[in-house]
Design goal:
By secondary structure, the chain is an alpha/beta fold. It is built from nine helices and nine strands. The longest helix is centred in the N-terminal third of the chain and has 20 residues. It is globular. The N and C termini lie close together (7 Å). The model has no long low-confidence stretch (mean pLDDT 96).
Length: 266
């Protein structure tokens, strides 16, 4: 069966440990006619297990750009970049042609503000807050932000003790709701796909999983592109670099781009 939509979910690490987790998520939440490719970068582009630090982000940026170029050439309708910092979002969009590019924070904000007037964001470490606050401001949603709530865990710590991680995330959620009157919760990082449902049952407000948000926003935008003809702008600040320059400078399209790929067929 020919897919109605082709969506790529890019794990922006040179590490494939989470690829199957993301593939299972996409298989569960995709539309029936959507083919999904979950990809990660090569180890040369940064074999990290996380990109909590700006210096790590800087290393993987080249890989994100190259992955975007390859996705366009392979005919994908949309690409989701899987990091809540929205790493490389605007840079990737610049060279994405008529392919849609989304990312978790932007997508989660759009969904949360559709469901509620005021939201809180739970993050792992205080380190993350400054950069993520900048993304919220850039998306024009700072006035609706109840606050950031850090649970004192880095990305690598989330899987060490599931019971403790769950307890800390729940405590942060209660604080956001009971003290700062948040009406929805966004998870800046999560324990596992599906954990948001446990939090919703416990806390009684919508809880947005950023991985699902980024994927579904990409899929929905691709559907709108096909149905309504809404393609990305290439005017003014969205202008793409000349293809002649890209070819002359090199480095965009040569060699291996993906270190791993998991295909979820129609």
């Amino acid at each position: 069966m020919e897919p109605l939509l082709k969506v790529m979910y890019l794990n922006p690490l040179g590490n494939s440990d989470y690829d199957q987790v993301f593939a299972d998520m996409c298989r569960r939440y995709r539309l029936p006619g959507t083919e999904v490719h979950v990809t990660s970068l090569t180890k040369q582009d940064g074999g990290f297990s996380h990109i909590e630090y700006r210096s790590y982000e800087a290393i993987v940026m080249r890989g994100i750009i190259r992955a975007t170029r390859r996705a366009v050439r392979e005919g994908f309708d949309a690409l989701a970049i899987g990091c809540f910092y929205d790493t490389g979002l605007h840079d990737a969009r610049e060279i994405s042609g008529d392919m849609i590019v989304t990312a978790p924070c932007m997508s989660s904000l759009e969904i949360a503000t559709t469901l509620a007037n005021r939201f809180g964001i739970i993050v792992g470490r205080r380190k993350w807050v400054n950069q993520m606050h900048g993304v919220v401001r850039e998306n024009g949603q700072a006035e609706k932000l109840a606050g950031f709530y850090h649970c004192g865990l880095g990305v690598n710590d989330f899987q060490k003790d599931h019971a403790e991680t769950s307890r800390r995330l729940m405590d942060c959620g209660r604080k956001a709701i009971e003290q700062d009157y948040a009406e929805a919760i966004i998870l800046g990082c999560t324990l596992e796909i599906g954990f948001f449902q446990e939090m919703e049952a416990e806390l009684g407000v919508p809880v947005i999983d950023p991985s699902i948000a980024a994927f579904k926003r990409a899929e929905y935008s691709a559907l709108l592109k096909k149905q309504c003809g809404w393609v990305p702008s290439r005017k003014w600040s969205c202008e793409a670099p000349p293809e002649e320059e890209i070819a002359r400078f090199g480095g965009f399209d040569e060699g291996e781009v993906f270190g791993n790929r998991v295909v979820v067929p129609v």
